[in-house]
Structure formats: C-alpha cells, structure tokens
Amino acid sequence: MKGFHGKSLSWELKDGVIELALARDPCNEIGSSTLEDLERFATAIESAEDHAHAVIIYSTLKCGFCAGADLRELYRRSQEMDGKAAVVGVREFLERIHRVMNVMDASPLTTIAAVHGVTFGGGFELALVCDLIIADKTARFCFPELRLGLIPGFGGIPRLKRDLGNGVVRDLLLTGRSFNATRAHSVGLISQVVGEGEALRVARATTAQLKKFDRRTAAAAKKFIKPIPYEDLRQEIDLFCELFVQPAVAAGLRRFVESTEPQPYLP
User: Which CATH number is 86's domain given?
Assistant: First the structure.
C-alpha cells in the first residue's frame, strides 16, 4: 500500500497501522473533493488487508474531527440545477459516500476514530463507521441536520440504531442537540474518554495492543458483532432525497450559507 497526500486528507501505512489524517480547512467538511480522496482510501484499505491490522482516522485541525457535509457546495449545486436534476445529483453523491462508508464499516481491519472538538453530521457518521471511537474531552457529537429540514444522509441513522438504544438515537436525531464526550461515553457511543490532545496517542497505543492478537480472530469477531444494515442504509438515502426537495431545506441551506457566524455549523 502506497501512502497518499491530497488536498483534503492523507494516509500512510506504518507498522501495520494505516493512519488517515483529515486536513481540509475550515473543519474537514466532506464535499466532492474529499469524497474523491475517500474513494481512493476505500480502494487502498481493501488492497492493504494482508499488510495491516488496524486503521486510525483523525484530524490535524484544531477545530475538531469533522463538521460534516460541505453545505456550501451542496447549496451552490442545488441552485445551479432544477429540482429533479438536483435530487439526482444528491442521490449520486449519497450512493458514492455510502459505498465508501460501507467498505470501511465491513473492513476486516480494526478501525479507530480518534476524535476531538467538533464531530458533527457527516463527521459523526464517519466516526460511527469505525469499530472504536476514542474521544478527548473536548469532543462534541451532534446531528444538526434537523435545522436544515433534513436527516443524516451518510448512514448515521442505521449505524446508530445498530449500536445504541432507541432512546439515545431519538434524542440525537430529533432535538439536534450535542453530546459531550462524557455523555457520549455514558451511553456507550464511544469506548474511551481521554485528556485534551490525547486521542491520537491513545489510539496508537490501542493498535499496538491489537497487534498482539490473531487478526483472523478479530476479523471473525467483528463480522459477527457488527452486521452492516444495508437495507436500512438504502432507505435512508430514499428518505433524504424525499426531504431534499422540501422548501424548508432550501431555506435552511440559504441561512447557513449567508450566516456571518465564524462557525455556523455549531448548534
């Protein structure tokens, strides 16, 4: 597996661990360019299964792990197309990001998200793909899509339903409020809370522990305890596209784009 250095992210393989570093200003928003890099990454990890035992995903930016989808790009594209063409474009984007997320979710490698700060929307969904989430105490988890008249579209609902009780899922999806790291740990969303700036170090220490055990056993256990909810994921795309044509979505995206707040994605 060769390393990669793109505009939005980079990765390298060292001592059997693939480290994916998110590095797109202002806060790792996932748009078309990041999706292209993630598609390259999905292909790369499939080819590295004989050379690696773990994956770590982290952010190099101070703001946090990832603020979610690139809403400015989404708004711009929706304005450039009529309603039907915009929905077709949104569906194509969602199907592509779902393919990436599903590859990562189903990988026999043990995957760890080392998160801090903002872990919102699509960034939260990227973390949910991973087997373990290690969060420093600054981390905040949120699905703010409700403010836009939308639901999470990168697979977050089915993966939350798989991993957590329905009461917690409804709280996150219907209120739009955020959970801090302590709350997230108490409900079983994350595996560890660590000190500020310590998530990546602890994730690396965890991969060193994982290396002691047989990879085939870990892969078999993961496949058994972490089924991929493919049917629910397809339904999520359909529901997102149905909602996308509603007037509330255009109004919500416009408010976001026109906001003068330095971090309009914050709830």
Answer: 3.90.226.10
Report how far apart the first and last C-alpha atoms of the chain are (Å, whole number). Answer: 40
pTM of the entire predicted model: 0.95
Which pLDDT band holds residue 2 (cuts at 50, 70, 90)?
Answer: confident
pLDDT in tens, 180-220: 999 999 999 999 999 999 999 999 999 999 998 888 999 99
Give φ, ψ of 265 to 5 degrees: -80, -10
CA-wise closest residue to 99 among 6, 2, 7, 233: 233
Structural domain count of the chain: 1
Residue carrying the six token digits 């500020």: 196
Q: Which of 126-130, 160-164, 236-240 has the lowest mean pLDDT?
A: 160-164
- The answer, yes or no, to whether residue 84 has pLDDT greater than 90, is no
Per the structure, the complete domain to which residue 235 belongs is given by 4-201+220-258
